[in-house]
Predict the structure.
Amino acid sequence: MLQFLIKRLGQSLVLILIVTVITFFLMNLAPGGPASMMRMDATEAEREAIAERLGLNDPVTVRYGKWLGNAVQGDFGPSLSSGEQVIDRIVDRFPYTLQLAAWTVLFSVVIGVVLGIISARNRNTWKDYTINFGSVIGLSVPSFWMAIMLILLFSVQFQLLPSSGTGDDAGFMDRFKSMIMPVIILSTSTLPTIVRFTRSSMLEVASQNYVRTARAKGVKERTVIYSHALRNALIPVISIIGVLIPRLLSGTVIVESVFGWPGMGRLIVEAAQSRDYNLVMGVTVIATILVVFSNFVVDIIYSKVDPRVKNLA
Amino acid sequence: MMLRKVIAVFLLVALILAGCGDQENQGNSSTKPGEVQKGGNVSIPIVGDPIFNPWHPNAYAESNIVNRVLFQGLTKPGLDNSPTANLAKEWSTSDDGLVWTFLLKEGVKWHDGEEFDAEDVAFTFNDLVLNEALGSNGASNYKTLDKVVVVDPYTVEFHLTSPFAALPSYLAFNSEILPAHKFEGVEDPWDYIEFNKENPVGTGPFKFDKYVSGQSLTLKKNDEFHNGAPNLDSVTFKILPDLNTQIAQALSNELDIFVLEDKSSLKRIEQASNLDLVTADITRYFWIAVDQENPKFQDVKVRQAMLHAIDRETIIDTVINGYGTVANAAITPDQKQYFKDDLKTYGFDPEKAKELLKEAGWEDSDGDGILDKDGEKFSFTFDIALQGDMEQIAVLVQQYLKDVGFDVKLNTLEWNAMIQKNIIERDFDMMLNWWSYPSDPDVLAQYHSSNAGKGNNIPGYKNEELDELLEKGQSTSDPDERKVIYDEIQDHMAENLPYIYLWYPQELSVRNSRLSGLPDLHFGGTLHYINEWSVTK
C-alpha cells in the first residue's frame, strides 16, 4: 500500500509539473498581455512602466523558473489584475465551486442511479425510452441555453428561484434555492453518464448466474435488485465519478458565469481574458491537484468496494 | 412506488418555494403613489470585480461605475455636459493659460471623518498621476500637467507645460481625488489591498459597506455628503458578467438600471411593464482606421470612396436598431456647443465610390471584380476584435467594400490579441473600433501627428494644418474662439477623413420604472447625481 502511495504521489507531481509548463508557456506566448497594458488609450510609456512593475521584461523561461521556485514554497505571487495574493483569491472562490460540485455529484449519483435502475428494469419499455431520450437531450442541449431558459421560467415567469447569487446573506432556504438551478444545469453533464452507466451495468449484472440463482431460490425481486444486483452494478459507477470531476470543473465555467456564482470557474475565465498569468497558473495548479486527488480517492474506494481489485499498483 | 415518492417530495418543495417569493427591492408599500421615497436600495450590475481606486491600471469600466459613487472629482459633468463645480467650487486660469487655480469646497469630509483639503489633490496628482513609474490609468490625459501646488488648505494650482483649456472637463472624467492620509507610508499604491480592494475611503455620496468577490458590493449612504444626504439607503452592485442574466434580473425587479450594449433582447424589454428604455447621447464615435503609412490609403479619394461605398444608415438601422446617427467628424452631438451639423457627408452611393476610385487610378481593368492599379490589386485585411456587434458590422462593411471592387479579407481577433497586433505593433491595413472621451472637443490625442505611430493617432494621419488647429484649440479657453477653431477642425475631418467615420451611437439604458430623480444624462453622467436618485412605489 505504502509503495503504491509513493508511486502515485510521484506520478502526480510529474503530471502537475507538466501541466504547469504547458500552461505557463501557452499563456505567456499567446498574443497580448495583462489587461492593464492592453487598454486602447494607454501610451507606450504607460505600458513599459506596467511591464516593468509586473516583471514581464525577463525572458519567459526565467519567469517560469522564478514562478516555480516560489510556487513550490506555496507562494503563487500576486494577481496581476488586483494585486491580491493569488492564493487568497482562490481561497475566497474555491468553497463556492466545491459546494456546487459536491451537490451536483450527490444529486447526479442519487438521481442517476435511481433512473438507471428504472431504465434497466424496464428495458425497451416507454420508461426506458423516456429516460434515454432525456439523457440524450441533457447531454446535447448547450448548458448556457438551458440555464437561460430555466432563469426565464423559474426566475422571471414564476419568480420562484433567484436568477443569480448564492443567497449567503439569507437563511438556509435562500441558499438552497440559489443552488437549485446551477446544480440542475451542472448535472446535465454528469447525470446522463451515470444513468447510462448504471443501466448497462445493471443489465450486465442481471444476466449473471448469482442473480439467476437468487431468483431461482425465490428471493423477492426487490431483494434481488437491491441486495444482489445493485451492489455489484454500482462498482463501475464509482469509477466513472472520477472521470466526471474534470467535466464538472469545466462545466462550472459556464454555470458560474450565467448564475453569477462566485466560484473558480469564473475566476479562470476572468484570469485568462485579462492575461493574469499568476492567477491562471494558481487556478490551474489547484484544479490539477483536485482532479488528481479525486481520481486517487476513487481508486481507493474502488479497491475497498471491489475485493477482486487486490493489487492496486 | 419510489418514483411517486420522489415526485411528491419535488411538489412539496415547489409549493414551499412558491410561498417564498423574492421580497428584495420592493420598497415600502405604505408610501403614496408618486411620492418620493426616502430609503430603499438600488441594484446596478457590473461585469467584474471592481478596484476601489480610479487611477489603478486595472480599473476598467466596472470600477469606473463604482468609483464615481465612492469618490468625487474636483469637477463633474453638468446637466449640459460641461464641467460644473464639485469638490472645487470655482476655478480660473492665468492669462497665459499655464496656471489653473481651483478653490476647494470647505468642510468636505472623507468617509473616515478626516477633512478633505488641498493636500489630497496634490497627493493624487503629484504622487500618483505624475509618477511615471506607476503607469496610472488615465495619466496620458494629463500630459501637459507639470505639478499641482498647494497654495493654502483650500486652494490648489495646476501648473501646466502648455495651455490646456479642457482641464476642467478632464477633471470630471474618472479623475477622482484620493485621501492622502490613507496612503501615508504606502510603498506601492497599486498593491495597497487594504484600500484598493477591502476598505476604500472616499468623499462620495455612498460609502463602503460589504464586498463579496465575484458576487456583490454594497455601499451605504453617507449622511455627511457635501452635496446633501442621498435619498437612498444603499446601492448594491451585483457582479453579473452575463447579459442574459442581467436582463432576466431586470425583468424580475432584481436590477434597477444598466446600459444595454447588446440590442438583441430589445423586444423582450420593450414588452416589460416594469422597465423603461431611455436613450441618451454620449461622447463616443465608431470609426474605421486605414493604415495611412500604406500608399494605397493615402489618397483621400480612396477614403472618400470607401465611405460612399458603406451604407451606414442600413448598418445603424439593422445592427444597432437605429440607436445612432451617421458621423462625419470626431466632435459628438452631445457637445451641443461645438457640434457642427452641416458638415460634408458621404451618402451611400456605390457609383460615386467607383468614380472617385477611378479618379485615384483604381479600376477593375481585367474584369475579375477587383480593383487594380499598375498591375497591383487593391487587396487588404480588415482586423476585427470579438466585441459586441463589431463582427457583425465588419461583415457588412466587408460586403459593401467588395461590391465596389475592394478585395477585403476579415481577420477576427480576441480583444487582447487585437490590441497587441493593431495598437501596440501598429500592424494592420484596416481596423474598426471606437473612441470615448471626456465631453470636450479637444481630440488632439487621437489626431496630432506627434501621436502617430505610437500614441492614440491610430491611422497615423499627419497633417500640419490640422496639427496647428488642434494646438490652437487646446490652448484657447474662450468658448466663442474655440467654437470657430473646432468648426474648422470638423470641416477638415469631414473633408480629409483622417478616420473613416461611421456613427455616433446613442446609449440605451434599461431602467426600472420605480426609479426617479435621475437627471437627463447618459448612465455614467447620472451616477454623478446618485444622491438625488430615489425609488418610488
In short: Residues 479-496 of chain B form the longest helix (18 residues). The longest strand of chain B covers residues 500-512. The mean pLDDT of chain B is 91.
